[in-house]
Amino acid sequence: MDLLGRLLLLIATLAITVADIPYYVPRITTKPILGKLTSSSFVLDQPQCIFHQYKTSQVWLVVALNRVIPQLSYMELSNPANISSFETNRYYHTLPVIGGDYPCADVSGKLKAMIYVGSDVNCSNPLFCNGPVPSLGTYRVRFVVLNGTGMETGTRWSEVITLRKGIDPSTINTWPTKYSFSMIVITTLLASLLLVLLVCLIVALALGSKDVWWFKNIDLKEKKEPAVSVNKDSFYRTHPMYSAHNRKPYLTMTKEVEDYTIT
After folding, report:
1. Radius of gyration, alpha carbons of the chain
2. Which helix (H) or strand (E) holds 184?
3. Which domains does the chain have, with CATH numbers?
4. Which of 42, 80, 129, 135 could form a disulfide with 123 if both were Cys (CB 3.0 to 4.6 A apart)?
């Protein structure tokens, strides 16, 4: 009874595994990495635990323009096409891997592995080249399992993958090293106004310092000159207290003050 149960479980597992492949949909990874979609490459999540029943078969990734997919036949998918034939076929096969090399689970404990499509800049073997995706456009991909007689099975086509268009370096705004005409005019005017204000400030400081020096000289001259001048021929009456203190007779004025000038 136990043997029958195990056999039924094995058959069910095989059926589920075989059924997983036609329903598997490749997709661009959702992991937070940089450069997962560029103008000539993209990054897919690696299939997990769907190819372990094809350990000796080759699993290829087919990259095709979206518009040619309806015309691709079973024979075309069964015969690997080199990336160099893309200009004619508008599709190619790349990244051949033995089915047993795809892990059934991520045993490393880290993030699941990813597949970098278009990462080989220099291809030593054109047949296995994973060179940059030949042209901009909308692509779709699928995995196919091939043996010596043809395609055994394959996944579904992915959703549309639109490569990002690169930016022409000459169109990039390199401000402030690259100015427009209006920016140059505005900058020149502001610089001129700043220069005028600086000159005015210097002149104002110079004039202010001169005025302070001039008023200071006037003040010193006024302090040196006597505030009251008395004519040398004028006579005045001495104070009685002064006379008494000196025990001299009281002096009477013989002449009135003729001049008394206040300056």
Report:
1. 52
2. helix 181-224
3. 19-165 (2.60.40.10), 227-263 (no CATH)
4. 129
